[in-house]
Amino acid sequence: RYFASVAGSRKGGAGIEQRVLASNPIMEAIGNAKTIRNDNSSRFGKYIQLNFGDRYAISGAEMRTYLLEKSRLVFQASNERNYHIFYQMCAARNHELLKGMRLGSADDYHYTSQGRASLLEGVNDEEEFNATIQALSEVGFSSDAQRDLLKVLSGILLLGNVQFSAGGGDDATAVQRDASAAVRQLCEEVYGIDEAELRLWLTNREIRAVTEVVRKPLNRDEASRNRDALAKMIYAHTFDWVVEKVNGALRGTFNGSSPSKGAPKPQRFIGVLDIYGFETFEVNSFEQFCINYANEKLQQQFIQHVFKLEQEEYVREEIAWIRIDFYDNQPCIDLIEARPGLINYLDEQCKVVKGSDPRWLDQITNCPTLKKSAQLQLPKIRSASFMIKHFAADVSYTVDGFLEKNKDTVNEQLMQVVAKTKFGFLREILEPSVGDLAQAAAAGGKRTKKTVASQFRDSLKDVMTVLESTRPHYVRCIKPNDDKMRFTFEPKRAIQQLRACGVLETVRISAAGYPSRWSYEDFGKRYRVLYPEGRAMWRDYPRKFASAACAKHLEEVKFALGKTQIYFRAGQVRLRFQEKHKT
């Protein structure tokens, strides 16, 4: 808001700022959800960058997103919700944009009723829907685009209501009879796809042998996972499409037009990285693994910036000091991303025909390098889990589902069914995956794509590159209590969080170091009045002046003289000099 007011008189400044603000309710609607600990928890990572021109006017903005929690779409734990947008749509089902979609209440859909928490205390989902639509309009989405977007989302709700009946030998030979209405509405009214083909490939898959193609029936659980994979794929592509359009609005290229080729790249920017905090639950899976990996990378960047570089500066300035020990989490990062490492072995299992979660755990257990890691704790008795000693806490991960979530694949036959859709908007948002499928078919082989973990690792590398090019500032968010109650503060809970995110360690090291520093020239200009007898030398001999002035007012251990700067212990300048200067 501040930069918008400064740039308001300049062309485009306020408009871009308004679109940046409007992007928040949009992204919260499609990317935030109620969890046990937070009624508006962000379930994706976001980096937004405000770019500035030569005159410090806002010249544009850009948003990047990371690791949307797709599993939340198809499953919610008790007292949790799916993404807000679905509850908003159900609450506002009589809205003009939703007419004809025949939406029910959130309790009518499998994907929005599992957590038994359809209503949020103090939140009116219908009003929130209106706010989301208003924001979409401000960013530049037409009424037709909004209606198409909502139509795709309504189809996901219908898809979730497709349940399966067990046939002979527990084969899912058919869609349940009472789910036929949902299938028919999905195929005929929403997605425009062939109902018979959808029924067939929800309950079967193709196995390609050397000389033949075999159709294999799926059991009920396999068919449900097949359905869920399709729903997650559609939602992920919808999410990416919205982000792309919002970015177009922030860059001023909403309809796909490119900015002028001669436009210079922004030299100045302010970026905000808003990413999920460290997570540990009773059951921790692939999502928590990735989230905590991201937090390890950010903690390492914080350590590098605050601790390592600080101590390297002391060495350069030739300050006499005692080296401060601090916890370096690089070994934990190496455990996860180095070779051999957890991601490396996970990707290997995803590539082999008989790869499985237990075989991945066996690889980890039998690797001599990983067994030596102090950050990895393997079960003494056979168990489907392992523990990582993270900087914030020890977390036990259950390996079940890791491979499936890392591969993130959809039955190719199902993809081909959806690719034939008569719904142009759905065809547009699925184009990236459909295009990959067509290329693979032309090449006579299967699709090959990076695993989720590998993509996430590369994204984190890009984020770190951006952060290392900046002067970062850190904001640590502390929950005052776990009951989401206002004006209630639990000191023990706060201390746990402060310790977990490294704040206490930072305070300890800051107290042991010299967090405040001045160039000798600036110190002399500012505080020469406090040492009258040295006024004659502050300009020509600033280092000598600073030494004499500090010796008069401070104990020797409270400051240090470097080659180019004078350093102070925490609080000394404020306590000893600023108050006297005011007087």
From TrEMBL:
GO CC, alphabetical: cytoplasm; membrane; myosin complex
Molecular-function GO term, any one: microfilament motor activity
Domain Myosin motor, chain residue ranges per copy: 1-582
SMART domains given in the database record: MYSc
Region (Actin-binding): 460-482
Highest rank taxon of the organism: Eukaryota
Stretches of the chain forming a coiled coil according to its record: none
A biological process from GO: actin filament organization
Pfam families: Myosin_head
Keywords, in A-Z order: Actin-binding, ATP-binding, Motor protein, Myosin, Nucleotide-binding
PROSITE patterns xrefs: MYOSIN_MOTOR (PS51456)
InterPro entries in the cross-refs: Kinesin_motor_dom_sf (IPR036961), Myosin_head_motor_dom-like (IPR001609), P-loop_NTPase (IPR027417)
Protein's UniProt name: Myosin motor domain-containing protein
Gene3D superfamilies linked: 1.10.10.820, 1.20.58.530, 3.30.70.1590, Kinesin motor domain, Myosin VI head, motor domain, U50 subdomain
Similarity comment text for this entry: Belongs to the TRAFAC class myosin-kinesin ATPase superfamily. Myosin family.
